[in-house]
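Tip: read the tokens left to right.
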């Protein structure tokens, strides 16, 4: 049973300021280090910020960020229901402390054909990005999306990404949970026309 607040029963409780959006993505950001070893981190603070452009808030101390600044490139994969443990692991362990973190997570990489960054074989969909800018003060990183690489078998007959097969997860920052994206409940740019 889905709880439904109406104008009659809605009274609000103030939680104060929180870094909260629903849904938050689970972005898996990967780059090569100075020796060509791949690293990967988990990032919830990010999203599309323009045509073929992604913006994320990434701390400069992370090994992944240092790597991106060397190679000026990275990939962003979408974490999936069957990679929850690995995706969380790389978000709580740093390659600054565990240099073989990527391999320990069980990940393998294939070099992107588009940018100087690793595609992580265990994630079916990835954005291949060129670094556009990084601000050490605000921690804002902007990347140009040069290509979207999709593993065979993850496209619909129409050639679009099959979300039901991909099973991307979202981060619930209030409860510290990962939720899988649910069923289709509507058609964008279409359902609202009923109220026109
Ligand atoms: C759910 C989750 C979300 C995270 N979101 C971010 C984020 O948006 N920005 C960030 O800088 N770090 C974020 N982190 C922390 C990094 O993933 C973590 O510090 C990681 O160990 C860095 O690895 P590295 O030093 O090998 O690059 C997040 C971690 C988790 C578990």
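Filled-in amino acids:
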């Amino acid at each position: 049973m889905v709880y439904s607040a109406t104008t009659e029963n809605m009274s609000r409780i103030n939680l104060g300021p929180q870094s909260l959006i629903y849904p938050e993505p689970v972005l898996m950001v990967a780059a090569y280090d100075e020796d060509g070893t791949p690293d990967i981190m988990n990032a919830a603070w990010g999203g599309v910020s323009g045509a073929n452009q992604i913006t994320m808030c990434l701390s400069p101390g992370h090994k992944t960020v240092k790597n991106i600044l060397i190679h000026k490139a990275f990939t962003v994969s979408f974490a999936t229901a069957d990679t929850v443990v690995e995706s969380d692991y790389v978000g709580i362990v740093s390659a600054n402390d565990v240099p073989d973190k990527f391999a320990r997570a069980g990940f393998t990489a294939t070099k992107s054909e588009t940018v100087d960054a690793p595609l992580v074989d265990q994630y079916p969909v990835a954005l291949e990005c060129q670094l556009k800018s990084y601000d050490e003060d605000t921690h804002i990183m902007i990347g140009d999306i040069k290509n979207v690489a999709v593993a065979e078998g993850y496209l619909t007959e129409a050639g679009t990404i099959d979300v039901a097969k991909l099973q991307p997860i979202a981060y619930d920052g209030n409860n510290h949970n990962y939720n899988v994206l649910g069923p289709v409940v509507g058609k964008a740019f279409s359902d609202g026309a009923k109220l026109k």
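The chain has four helices and twelve strands. The longest helix spans residues 63-71.
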